[in-house]
UniProtKB/TrEMBL annotation:
Residues 1-257 form the Reverse transcriptase domain. It comes from the Eukaryota. Gene3D superfamilies: 3.30.70.270. This is Reverse transcriptase domain-containing protein. Pfam families: RVT_1. CDD domains: RT_nLTR_like. PROSITE patterns: RT_POL.
């Protein structure tokens, strides 16, 4: 069962910028059923290897867990006048960049049976992408990334990221909560580093970048941001000799955070998103009298913009 990369999807920005394109994996339905069966057999093993800091693609976990944790940290730091530095990590095309060989290494490290690792390795051994320059087909072997659209891909990526973070050795960093140090939160590849000083944030960021590079992951310094409160000083957070940009607010997992814990901006952003979503389906709603269709459109388009 071969997988072929064919076509591309514009993510955002200028259409003539190749960086705004991402390949789409066309996978046979039979292959997806097969990998879903593999996932059913190894899911429990993978979940047991994940710490509570990882909430992405896990049962009984939600973005709300991490959002609430961030807001509580901000509230507690203001109440007790404690320094707090939050560094929001952005990777360059994380799912398309991981090295498959590191994924298989991570699976074995986390207790997945060798037979399943070998099966997945074989599934990835004959993947190609096709270009059509001047009407001539050029076939290139794909040697990086996990397949977007494959049911098992999110779990493979999470396993690889856990493999990276285990090697970062952040045990002495973070904020102390009842004797336990909380130094980061992650939802898939959305990572926030939590420290008491910008110097510690720089050290954690450097270790993450160094260990991630071994697996093909590269931190996007232009989109990585730092948010800090007034008690943490103004020392810049550094990576590769450059300073990471400081921001007063940041949209994390769909919720706007700031060190004042002020919800005014978040409510305004939600209202704007709600009207934008409604206007995108307004013409369809006006042209149909089918109440069920109108309700389904509203529930699938407008409500997600509010939650």
């Amino acid at each position: 069962m071969e997988a072929v990369f064919n076509g591309a999807a514009v993510q955002e920005g200028r259409q003539k910028d190749l960086a705004n394109y991402r390949p789409i994996t066309l996978l046979p339905v039979l292959y997806k059923v097969f990998t879903r069966c593999i996932l059913a057999r190894i899911r429990r093993t993978l979940e047991e290897a994940q710490p509570v800091e990882q909430a992405g693609f896990r049962r009984n976990f939600s973005t709300l867990d991490h959002i609430a944790t961030c807001r509580r940290l901000i509230e507690a730091s203001r109440e007790h006048r404690l320094p707090l530095v939050m560094t929001f990590i952005d990777y360059k095309k994380a799912f398309d960049s991981v090295e498959p060989v590191k994924v298989w290494e991570a699976l074995e490290e986390q207790g997945v049976e060798r037979i399943y690792v070998d099966v997945l390795r074989e599934c990835y051994s004959h993947c190609t992408t096709v270009f059509h320059p001047f009407y001539n087909d050029v076939v290139v072997a794909v040697q990086k990334g996990v397949r977007q659209g494959d049911p098992i891909s999110p779990n493979l990526f999470s396993a690889c990221l856990e493999h990276v973070i285990r090697r970062c050795d952040w045990s002495n960093y973070g904020v102390n909560i009842d004797g336990v140090r909380l130094n980061h939160l992650r939802f898939a590849d959305d990572i926030v580093l939590i420290t008491e000083s910008p110097e510690h944030a720089s050290e954690m960021l450097h270790r993450l970048d160094e260990e991630g590079s071994h697996c093909g992951l590269t931190i996007n310094t232009s989109k990585t941001k730092v948010m800090r409160n007034q008690f943490s000083g103004d020392t810049p957070v550094l990576l590769k000799g450059g300073a990471i940009e400081d921001v007063d607010e940041y949209v994390y997992l769909g919720s706007q955070l700031n060190m004042r814990n002020d919800l005014t901006g978040e409510l305004a952003r939600r209202r704007k998103a709600r009207w934008a979503a409604f206007n995108s389906i307004k013409s369809v709603l006006e042209d149909t009298r089918d109440c069920k269709l109108r309700a389904d459109l509203f529930n699938s388009t407008v409500l997600p913009a509010l939650s």
